[in-house]
Write a structure and sequence with these properties.
heterodimer, A: 226 residues, mainly alpha, Methane Monooxygenase Hydroxylase, Chain G, domain 1, 7 helices, elongated, B: 270 residues, alpha/beta, Rossmann fold, six-stranded mixed beta sheet, four-stranded antiparallel beta sheet, 10 helices, 26% strand
């Protein structure tokens, strides 16, 4: 069993930070699901409602950052506590960026609604599915302190990249055949790009979780010029 | 010059030291009467670096550094086994004079302890007088150099003949450091040197430690983990008279290897 801190107020602060992160991750995960669904089903209302949830994500980001600063200033955490708090500062940034990307998808979905839809939505849907699972697993790995699960998230980023290029090329071919669809086609490519960026942020989250658990930085392995 | 610490450790391999080991502590066990307080400590103390020794009360930190300059043996019933070498020479060797050893290995204590009846100048020179080293040198130069090295000269240069006890707590502690430096030691042992000082005086001592390590080898016992993290290059964590972990300070305070170290420095102890 993991030992608790002798100072219960400190233990409570760390637990509160963890809960805020999980709450934020939950909101962001649902935003992805709804943003992709809104695009697929040309659902303006869902897109608008999803877009408005970004204020919740922003508020949770600010509140989590504040709590991190209070803990750093008042507790001077060390070792795994220090890694957890600094990781939290980074995690909220990645989660907030993912929320922004979901907003970007909703904006494109609203603009696309009611237009002809020859686009490779299957690929977009698949991207949304993988990215959502990546975020969910990264957060679950964080909760369970599961290094293997976190590492599996990093490995799945290649799948997202592959799907992105498939959607990109298919949309490009369609635009070549139907030049008057370029405006919509670029929107679809953008949606795919936003999902691909979400995959990158999910990978960041997972890498940070590995660092929190093992104290080992796996980012940019072999690409830091060392 | 890079070398590798040669001593084995309790829980992990020692980190490579950035400098030679000035002191080597090998299999040191210590007793007060029948009570064994150190159970076989192996660790190096790197030359011209700061090594912090941390651990809960009663873990043997002070005993360990008092063993290095043979102050442990001054306590009735105290006993020690094992080997401590200074530049390769066994400090417990038959030919070693403890008084001369303590000139090479100075000590600063928890509570500033200037001699109350002595002036600032005489306090600085007291160590030299006691060890008979004052005859061949010019005292004023020694006083100025020691006080400058202890970052105290500018504050006391006009009151050298006033009682040392009249200085503030932080100044008194720096006076004690000057007193230790006046005998030209190579190693400075500090036993919780800031625990009786306010944060400003503590910062001055920590700043001083940073500059002193260019010339001296320093081992500091501290209860303040943030202080250990701030001032030291290497940190040893002792628990119940055993060395749990010895590591580079940056490593030990961010990713300790041993779960007992982790629990202690994150406040999950006891």
């Amino acid at each position: 069993m993991k030992r608790a801190h002798t100072d219960r107020e400190y233990e409570g602060q760390l637990e509160e930070l963890r809960e805020r992160l999980l709450r934020m991750a939950g909101v962001v995960e649902q935003m992805i699901v709804d943003a992709v669904r809104a695009a697929l089903h040309q659902d303006r209302e869902l897109a608008q409602a999803t877009l408005e949830r970004d204020t919740t994500v922003n508020r949770l980001e600010v509140e989590s950052d504040e709590l991190c600063l209070i803990i750093l200033a008042k507790r001077q955490p060390l070792a795994s506590d220090l890694r957890f708090v600094t990781l939290s500062l980074k995690m909220v940034t990645d989660l907030e960026r993912i929320g922004d990307l979901a907003v970007n998808i909703c904006e494109r979905a609203i603009d696309l609604a009611g237009h002809p839809q020859p686009w490779p939505w299957d690929g977009v849907e698949a991207m949304g599915r993988v990215v959502r699972a990546m975020i969910r697993d990264a957060i679950q790995a964080f909760v369970d302190r599961d290094v293997d699960k976190a590492q599996s998230v990093c490995e799945r980023d290649a799948e997202v990249d592959k799907l992105y290029w498939q959607v990109f090329r298919t949309a490009l071919d369609l635009m070549r055949k139907q030049p008057n669809s370029v405006h919509d086609g670029i929107h679809v490519q953008s949606i795919a790009k936003f999902l691909e960026r979400m995959g990158d942020h999910s990978t960041n989250l997972a890498e940070q979780v590995v660092f929190m658990i093992k104290g080992k930085d796996i980012r940019h392995t072999g690409r830091t010029g060392d | 010059m890079t070398s590798v610490g040669s001593t084995a450790l309790t829980s992990s391999l020692p980190p490579p030291l950035a400098t030679e080991a000035k002191l080597s502590i090998e299999g040191v066990r210590a007793w007060f009467g029948s009570l064994e307080v150190l159970h076989g400590i192996d660790m190096p103390i790197a030359d011209r670096s700061v090594t912090a020794i941390i651990g809960p009360s009663g873990c043997g930190k002070s005993t360990l550094i008092r063993s290095v300059n043979r102050m442990h043996e001054l306590t009735d019933g105290a006993r020690l086994e094992g080997k401590i070498t200074l530049d390769g020479i066994d400090v417990y060797g038959r030919d070693v004079d403890p008084v001369l050893l303590r000139r090479r290995v100075g000590m600063v204590f928890q509570k500033p302890n200037p001699f109350p009846s002595m002036s600032v100048r005489d306090n600085v020179l007291s160590g030299l007088r006691l060890t008979g080293g004052l005859s061949a040198v010019r005292p004023d130069e020694i006083v100025e150099k020691a006080l400058r090295d202890a970052a105290l000269w500018d504050e006391v240069k006009d009151r050298l003949d006033k009682p040392g006890i009249g200085l503030s707590g932080g100044q008194q502690q720096r006076l004690c450091i000057a007193r230790s430096l006046a005998v030209s030691p190579e190693v400075l042992l500090m036993d919780e040197p800031c625990s009786a000082l306010d944060p400003i005086a503590t910062s001055r001592i920590e700043d001083l430690i940073h500059s002193l390590k260019e010339t001296y080898t320093i081992a500091i016992v501290t209860h303040n983990m943030q202080q250990a993290a701030r001032v030291s290059d290497y940190t040893a964590f002792l628990l119940g008279g055993e060395l749990v972990e010895f590591s580079e300070t940056n490593r030990l305070f961010t990713s300790p290897r041993d779960s007992r170290t982790e629990d202690y420095i994150t406040g999950k102890f006891g």
